């Protein structure tokens, strides 16, 4: 199962003392990229949305994902084969970039996860949560950028 592979692949990530306190918690999927686009497009096997990362007693990581295929959002439970999984970049307060290399179907996947501390910062300045707009869910005029790609 893919979740087991992800946990095993990240066993060493939390080997340092104190890491578990900073990596565990809520995360949000921001960007996905793959050299096999069909894997991350709608109904793709790797179109997953992270909700939570936990650190297990053996220092491996456990992820709670959701996927949205032909049915409403459900807990992620597909298996996409033999994977090598590692962290490319991390700022535990803000973001993590994961790199996955799949050897069964021969593809690569990069995932950017972020924290949602922005809402807490807004609330400190008197801006209520209802007045925060998630721009990742709207058309951000990418087509207007220099390369014309949406």
From TrEMBL:
Secretion signal, residue range per the UniProt entry: 1-15
Lineage: Eukaryota, Metazoa, Chordata, Craniata, Vertebrata
Main location: secreted
Sample GO molecular function, one term: odorant binding
Keywords attached to this entry: Disulfide bond, Secreted, Signal, Transport
Domain Lipocalin/cytosolic fatty-acid binding: 24-138
Organism annotation: Capra hircus (Goat)
Transmembrane segments: none
Protein name per the record: Lipocalin/cytosolic fatty-acid binding domain-containing protein
Family statement: Belongs to the calycin superfamily. Lipocalin family.
Record's GO cellular component terms: extracellular space
């Amino acid at each position: 199962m893919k979740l087991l592979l992800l946990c095993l692949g990240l066993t060493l990530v939390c080997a340092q003392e104190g890491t578990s306190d900073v990596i565990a918690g809520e995360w949000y999927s921001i960007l996905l990229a793959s050299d096999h686009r069909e894997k991350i497009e709608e109904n793709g096997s790797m179109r997953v949305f992270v909700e939570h990362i936990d650190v297990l007693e053996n220092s491996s990581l456990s992820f709670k994902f959701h996927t949205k295929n032909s049915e409403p959002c459900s807990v992620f439970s597909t298996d996409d084969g033999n994977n090598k999984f590692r962290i490319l970049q991390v700022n535990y307060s803000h973001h993590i970039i994961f790199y996955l290399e799949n050897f069964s179907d021969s593809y690569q996947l990069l995932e950017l996860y972020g924290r949602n501390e922005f809402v807490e910062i807004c609330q400190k300045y008197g801006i209520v949560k209802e007045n925060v707009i998630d721009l990742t869910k709207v058309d951000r005029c990418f087509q207007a950028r220099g390369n014309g790609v949406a």
